[in-house]
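Researcher: Please translate sequence to structure tokens.
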Amino acid sequence: MTSPDRTPPALAAPATPSAEGRATDAYLGMMRALVEGSTQGAENHPDLEVHARGQALQLTTDMLDGATAAGEPVLRPEVTESDLEGDPPTVVIEDCMDNTEWTLVGQPSRDLSEEHTRLYTATVTLSGSEWKVEDLWLGEQNAC
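Model: Translation complete:
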């Protein structure tokens, strides 16, 4: 007699992502759109509005000024604060981004023996069922 087929736990449907996970996904989506737009020399990217609003949308749109970048930054987002009972629910993400290899085309290359970092602080809020980056602040170069 054989036992009935069972789905192994590893193949079961994934659990619903946590609020912090969905907020982090919104931040990463915004950054992917920013990087993709920068490598295309764009002045806007349609996915920015999917993942950002308010001041963060304005800042990232302004960052896409038609200049072309090459490479990609290394992102290290971490949730540093979470107020899921607030009105609206809010998650704060800090990212000590390494932008050593994300440079403007035509500018001198950075010294790759040094790390070039910048702290990005994102406030992500829930509106309806969507998490979006609402505020984005850039810290001093190499301050993290």
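Researcher: Any highlights?
Model: The chain has a mean pLDDT of 89.
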